[in-house]
Predict the 3D structure of the following.
Amino acid sequence: MNANVQAVKTPLGPRLRALPPVVWMLVVLALVFSITTPQYFALANLRNILVQSSALMILAFAQTLIVLTQGTDLSLGAQASLVTVLWVSLAKAGINIYLAATLSVCATVIVGMCNGLLVSKGKIPPFIATFGMQNVVSSIALLTTAGSSIYFSHYIFQFVTETRFLFVPLPVWIAALMFALTWLLLYRTKFGVNIFGLGGNPEALVLAGVNTVKSYVKVYAYAGFLAGICGLITACRVESGQPVVGMGWEFEAVAATLLGGTSLREGRGGISGTIAGVLLLTVLRNGLNVSGISAMYQNAIIGVIVMLAIVIDAMVRRVRGD
Amino acid sequence: MNYIAKQIRGSRSFFCLAGLMTLLILSSIASPDFRTLDNMITILRQASTLLILSTGLTAVIITGGMDLSVGATSAFIGCVCAQFLKIGVPVAAILPIGLLIGAAVGALNGFLVSVVGLPAFVATYATNWVVKGMSIIVMNGAVIFGLPEGFTWFGTGYIGYIPVISVIALIVVVIAYFLLQKTTWGRDIYAYGSNAEAARYSAVNVYKTVFGAFMLCSMSAAVGGLLMTARLNAAEAAMGDAYGLQTVAAVVVGGTSMLGGEGGVSGTVIGAILLTVIVNIMNLLGIPSSAQPMVVGGVIITMVLVDSASRRRDETVSKKSRNLLKTPQKGEVV
Amino acid sequence: STPPASGKASQDSKPPAQSSAAPSAPSSAEPHASSSQASPSQGADIELPTTGIGASISTNLKANEKYTIACIVKNSTNPYMVGCLNGVQKAAEDMGFEAVLMAPSTNDSVEEQVKIMEDLIQKGVDGFVLVPVDTNGIMPGVRKAMEQNIPIATIGTPAAVDTFLRTGVDYTETGRLVGKAVAEKIGGKGEVIILEGPPGAQNAQERLAGIKESFEEFPDIKIVASQTANFKRTEGMQVTENLLQKHKSVSAIIGCNDEMAIGAIQAIKAAGLEGKVTVGGFDGNQDGSSAIYDGSLYISYNTDPFGSSYLAAVYIAQFLNDGTEPPQYFIPFPSEVDKPLITAENVVEYMADIAWWN
Amino acid sequence: MDTILTAHGISKLFPGVKALDSVDFDLRAGEVHILVGENGAGKSTLSKCLLGAYIPEEGEIVFQGETMHFQSARDALEKGIAAVYQEFTLVPYLNVAQNIFLNREYKTKLGLTDHKRMEQEARALLKTLNCDYINVTQMVKKLSVAQQQMVEIAKALSFRPRVIIFDEPTATLSEREICSLFEQIHKLKAAGIGIVYVSHRMQEFARIGDRITILRDGKKIATVGIYEKTSEQLVNMMVGRDISQVYHRSENQRGGIALKTTALCDKAGRVKNVNIHVRHGEIVGVAGLVGAGRTELAKLIFGIDPIASGTLEIDGKQLTGKHTPLRMVKYNVGMVCEDRKRQGLALKDSIAWNIMAVSLRRYFPRQFINHKKMYGICGEYRKKFRIASPDIYRPCRLLSGGNQQKVVLAKWLSNNPEIIIFDEPTRGIDVGAKMEIYALMDQLAVEGKAILMISSELPEVIGMSDRIYVMYNGSIVNECVRGSGDFNAEAIGAMMLGIKEGSCCEC
Ligand SMILES: Nc1ncnc2c1ncn2[C@@H]1O[C@H](COP(=O)(O)OP(=O)(O)OP(=O)(O)O)[C@@H](O)[C@H]1O
Ligand SMILES: Nc1ncnc2c1ncn2[C@@H]1O[C@H](COP(=O)(O)OP(=O)(O)OP(=O)(O)O)[C@@H](O)[C@H]1O
Ligand SMILES: [Mg+2]
Ligand SMILES: [Mg+2]
């Protein structure tokens, strides 16, 4: 799956076997749902799944980068919420809508930089630093709108969610663009090398003369940027600013990241697997909804399947020995 | 005496204690309503549930792990036991039932972490999801209320001036302190947390240690859940939500390192009280609810920042030992 | 603060055909600019396809075909929401359609509500009974459903455009009524504490606005504190405990739902202020009703989620059968058929015949 | 030849340790300057100071006539001082080319990293090292240890430095790779590049070295030309006294066979068919090169790793059922492991808790700890082992290496084991501490304990053991008994290298 070894041409069989287990689970799940529910395999539903996963997908890319550096960013969900609120309220205050979008994404980039500084300079474990930030950020989001959601009418929201380009809605394209961008950064720039270094052997980076503080700040700031884009898409999806809309997404993003084969240790993994992780979660929800499983049981079912998926993933990896 | 002073000064909870003291003093100045006996008892009562939940979590975090399922587990056990009480199970039987379910959830976590080898963070997040889903199923969305008085007394009663719930919290803390500090198993938890590999080489029973820590955690969550239910005189599937990460914050602010091997329940006591006091004083000062998380987040970051700065000061060579260079001392160990 | 969006939405969204059937001004409250047209009136001469209220609601209507009607609420942990789900479930049993009962797995997530709507449109449902988290936030889903001509009935919180039907209660109105009743009970003066719903939730904001509005008539009433307790009993208790340390002479506490109000009562008992503080709540849920019965809660408002969603489902089934549109856009359900305020006077009757939770 | 790098009066402090004490050092262009000294003498620390990876508390570094104030390794690299470090300094999930060009990535016109060019150059570099079999697009994680080491060397060379520092580069290499490395070093020498070379392997010195600097306990002892001293003299200078004084064995009685393995194999194939035995009152050494599988054998015996086949007998009883450290401790077996920081100590915990880590269960079988009694016992052990620390409450990380090692010993000996496995018991500790440990081992043998000692320091194995097993590539290739003809450093050294006994006599 990893681009680093792309030059090595291996036959298809071993390459299929080397896919993260989550891909197979995804296939199995999709098969199960398409057998149980006839409407599942409709083209429209596939499109549906892609659109629904796009916001979480972008957030999960951000989380993957952070996890690669052996951290977790618990403030990502709050950052996305903040952007929805800031964007709409700035626009409402009369600022040009594109400028407003840029400004609000800038805000999360700054939040990300603070996270990075706390982690690198402050030497606080990322979990607790970003948890603190989560509180701060969600407070800002709530204070911006005095606690309520905020609404502003502009064609851009519907334009984003309803425009289709080559049969695929815009949010999916944006997610694809973010994937391309992140992929390039991760595998084709120094920034990406440093991410793998921070997770794999920070000492090596220091000896090679890399300023690790800067690297951390950059990673968290970029994660903030992605969270901002996720927030923009979300704002379009719900056509309003919602101060708590992203609550808990950071954890789903972690789950997707780990399912995608990125490890909390030694900087192993990459963003391609994360796509499968996010799709697994989305397909699961979508499938349960389409099959009309009652709300009462959904949480337990999703929980059990995610737990099984993680356990199977661990088992398969152990057998494979990676 | 010198030793004790040194221990306190050197212990991780020192900064937390100092922070709490500062907060108490500032609060007393800021609000006259704060320094009443009544308010102190209120804080004590409110801190109790958080304290019970975080006490068990302390053990898990000392092993270098994490339990994100504490809040959900406590709610789940509260819900199940409320259902049991409703169908007439005697109050006396409820505690064992709760502890048993707690032990089962803890064993599941322990299994996922030590046998399957998942990172605790992920394993317990999945457990959190499952347990939360199960409490929704158990409750079917309803709220159970009107529990027997013999049961609610534990949550609302008083012994003298002291709320029963605080007495129970104290008991839980003392038990956990005793287990962690005075038993070989407790020592194994510290040893495993500071260096898991060394613990294995020192013939520590790793499974017993990890399972034990998670079970202690979930069992204290059980006690917390029962008391939460008793105090509310009701059970609701979502009642543990707020405790999920707050417990982690209480433990870490109390000076227990997320890397494991350091800290203890005494710090957690201070951490839990600290977090409770912050909310209390903010309510008294009329700080709007939307702004409150910001203050809490700020305090958490500051406390941990100070703590980690002090840790680093230990690591670097102090001025005093630098001077050793100038006047080499004979017989000094290299 | 700005007037709630819902008021505006329902105000200028009234279908012209029904304006003749517009209800008269509400019986107990002053008409208010933002919601006068939408305000309920008792005994208005519209005919409901149902009889009874709360758990005793029933209908003679039968579904012509095996329709699938989905009910999407805000979460699956709040009795109110589960009341909504149960209402549609009961309607499905009575009328013979298939009910799909849904809630976001993350409590109160509007984004997930939209997802569920999208998914169910794929599944091919014939109607939606919806408790939106947010008026505007739910719009993408609503628009999609309307494109497919799927009727949508919203309960309580409306959508930003006209849907097939809106029923349940007007949150601002509920706040206004209970606020007024409590204010009168304490003689129009004194200190009041308000326990708010979760920040960011629209219905919570509207109800709060209603309460505050009602106090404008009483200049001697001072809101000394207004803090969130997230619609939860635990937090209601803790916040009240804290606030009572400072405001010992408080005359009334209004919890924006019964859960918080009961939490407040527990805190009041613990502080030994029993009987000195008037407590108001909303929803008329089981625990709240017993509290009114034993006198610790002064007043609550029957929001009847069960009956509301039942009624909405019946209207949808009727429409699917023969295209009958409801006679009116906004049917404030409980107050349409009964006095929604519950006090010690009518609580026995309420619990016996009207309550939605049996 | 002119001097290109000089260090004056370098001192470096670590918490509790003075790693370097006013060390002077100079390096000429085109020479290989070898740094020797025992483990912990400060060789790596000196190298790192020269490189800017550590900032010394005192002293100055002059490079090409300029006084340097390195703040980081980057500064030194820019000036032209590169290094092959002793520790692993590669990023596991980056490929070989990316690792070599870490932080110096080539860029295309678009500003993206130019993988093609990096790979080409990496390939070329590896080719000069005769390592073209290493795939430059392979993840470093997937390479063997020796291959990783060659990548590290290639990385250092890629800087085209004026000075290059090798810190034990050959420790994990096989003969073939060592040859290509030395070839490269000769080329560098010819090009006028100064080389600092840290190694323990005396046989390498003559092959490449020009001068030798001997360090002991952080102090410079002497700088000598390569042919000025015999290896005995060098060892004496390193150790600070005669070897014969250092090792002392008392006469004692041998008892029955305490530990015996029959055809022991592990799962990874690093231990093959090992048959050894240890008697009570006997010290048995295991000699071998790094990677020979000695540690694996010890781990296998102690139950850390599962046994694939073969049997283990303790005091004549064959071990059946679960094989865990816990069980081995019950059978009175102890193991002082190789890496005290990773496997031996909980560095954050106090000395006391570390001493009690194993024996706690023995002293307090009812699980309840009596703190007063415990601290009493720990205090006694501190005195007995002369652990240099003001109290027993300080965390172990503040102790020096030797004292840490003593804590590990105290941890095991407080449990009073009958069979003790020592894996590199004196690694990284000073001579004084070493002697104490040797005395202790001697005393244990007199008490009738069975001791299995693994060590990479031949003098130590030869000085202390009654019998020596020589291990090569996972198997025991020979057994030498004290007093017999092959019980000397040359013979055993040859066996360790896998050279047959016959051919050994010729060198
Ligand atoms: N980062 C550190 N923190 C504390 N002490 C250290 C550190 N690095 C080295 N030391 C101590 O400094 C002394 C010298 O260590 P150094 O690594 O330089 O030895 P060395 O001669 O390279 O030994 P070896 O042959 O084992 O590599 C040792 O006592 C060691 O314990
Ligand atoms: N072929 C190899 N593949 C992977 N790792 C190796 C290999 N050879 C050696 N190593 C590494 O080198 C270390 C030394 O190997 P091992 O412990 O088997 O040897 P040893 O004889 O005990 O040597 P020493 O005790 O001197 O390190 C091991 O910890 C292992 O990580
Ligand atoms: Mg070294
Ligand atoms: Mg070894």
Summary: The first helix of chain B runs from residue 2 to 10. Chain B has 15 helices and four strands. Residues D 14, 17, 19, 37, 39-45, 86, 400-401, 428 surround adenosine-5'-triphosphate (ligand 1) (CB under 6 Å). The first strand of chain B starts at residue 144 and ends at 145.
